[in-house]
Amino acid sequence: MSNRYAYLGPEGTFTEAALRALKPDTPAAEFVPCNGVDMVFAAVRRGEAAGGVVPLENSVEGGVSATTAELVRGDPLLITAEITVPVEFTLFARAGTTLSDVKRVATHSHALAQCRGWLAANLPDAESYVVSSTAAAAQAVADPASMYDAAICARIAGERYGLVPLAEGVGDRADAATRFIYLSRPGTLPEPTGADRTSLVAFLPHDHPGALAELLTQFAVRDVNLTRLESRPTGDGLGTYCFFMDADGHVAEARVGEALMGLRRICRDVRFLGSYPRADAGAGAGRPTPRVSTTDDDFHEAERWLARIRAGRVD
Ligand SMILES: O=C(O)C(=O)C[C@]1(C(=O)O)C=C[C@@H](O)C=C1
Predict the structure, then answer these.
(1) Which end of the chain is less enclosed by CB atoms within 10 A, N or C?
(2) Which of 116, 133, 168 finishes a domain?
(3) CATH number of the domain bearing residue 99
(4) Could you list the residue range(s) of the whole structural domain that residue 14 is in?
């Protein structure tokens, strides 16, 4: 079990590339493809895999709702690592197919959203079909009896399933990237590195003016930089939302811990999703320069001062 890692499969997905980059030299590692994001979560929750990788957000299309849905429901898992992978799309087909033969294109919904412009310009009459991943599209197209003529997928997937490229770089943005997260069962948090990210979901107590501002203030007054905020329906009826938040810093840091305590006081519920090293730390991102009043020492000094005055010492 301890060397098994689940990912959104089949072989050849961008998610597999993310997992291989996260676990480059893991001896005897077994990479286990799953047919859906929910199945990756289930494999980790059941202990069938030591960890799992799923897509979280894409720079063009935004959040992957299958992932955010699983992060809030069921037994909690922790995010213990992240990685960002550039996504380059190629149109692949069976040998002998030409571009003008392509009437039905299969791919993942997020990939389709990133290739709409190219499809409209180059295959305006083709119908698009959404399948569970880009590699699943390539796998389906490889079957000579397939209803699809072509797949939009990673180069590695097209090659893996014996297809031939019809057009490269079919994504509308050449610089598109997807952020993937590594999931573990709850346990030890990764050590703080100085350039970390903390993820959580906050549930407001009830709708009222300034509720979101109150949430954000918990971070602002402690000098904690938010890097992402996404509202998602809770499923409890229209107008009921929870907020996915990513913040710079590690929960072990005083200012982050205090911000989370503030949230805990004002929210109906807060689900902590993890503190883990930022993928772009090497590029210098996420290394906050806390203001004088928000270093760990400042918080600890204030705690000692409070203890003194509570003891009646005002000297
Ligand atoms: O289908 C894949 O290859 C995936 O890894 C999933 C996924 C996604 O969910 O966004 C990952 C990156 C691309 O943006 C397209 C699809």
Answers:
(1) C
(2) 168
(3) 3.40.190.10
(4) 1-87+177-188
Could you tell which of 178, 179, 180 is best to mutate to test the pocket of ligand 1, judged by most ligand atoms within 8 Å of the CB? 178
Q: What is the pLDDT of residues 148-171, one digit of tens each?
A: 999 999 999 999 999 999 999 999
Residue ID of nearest Cα to ligand 1 atom 6: 133
Verify that 303 and 257 share a domain, yes or no: yes
Query: What's the gap in Å between 264 CA and the centre of ligand 1?
Result: 33
CA of 134 to the centre of ligand 1 (A): 6
DSSP string, 64-91: -HHHHHHHHSSS--EEEEEEEEE---EE
- pTM value is 0.94
DSSP code, position 244: E
CATH number, residue 276: 3.30.70.260
Q: How far is the CA of 29 from the centre of ligand 1 (A)?
A: 22
The angle, 0 to 180 degrees and rounded to 10, between the axes of the packed helices 211-220 and 254-266 is 160
Same domain, 201 and 301: yes
Of the candidates 228, 291, 303, 201, the one whose C-alpha atom is nearest the C-alpha of residue 258 is 303
- How far apart are the C-alpha atoms of 224 and 216, rounded to whole Å? 10
Q: Does one domain contain both 209 and 279?
A: yes
Q: 220-258, pLDDT tens digit by residue?
A: 999 999 999 999 999 888 888 999 999 999 999 999 999
Check whether residue 70 and residue 116 sit in a common domain: no
Q: Does the ipTM exceed 0.90?
A: yes
> Ligand 1 mean position to 193 CA, how many Å?
28
